[in-house]
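Write out this protein's structure.
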Amino acid sequence: MANGVPLTDDDRWDWLETLRNKAVEELESGAEGCVVTCSCLKRRYRDVIRIAGREADDVIVRFVYLRASEELLLKRVKARKNHYMKDDMVHSQFTALEEPDESEMDVISIDVSGSLASVQNLTTERVRGCMEEERQ
């Protein structure tokens, strides 16, 4: 990606499996929770992560989908300095994107067009709400 070349599905599989396995290791070592951040652009990528919840009864997997327009993300990427993600790669990300649909019940969708603080607050509120529901 640093060379302006988008990753392929083949590039991602081992990486996604490693992320999933490291998260499960954290939980097995006694962590109360684990947050993994990555761009799960396609449903099959999310499905690789979901395996953790299917293989262990005590692992609950939730995704936070940060929803934005291509125009908004392009504007934000252009404002970055010295970052590997170049503007032309934004379009390739949107081309690959398979937005979560209503059948993906484990996805919390967050509109990120607001300020960083408002997005953080909304995300925290929605995640805490899900956690409360799961405890009941």
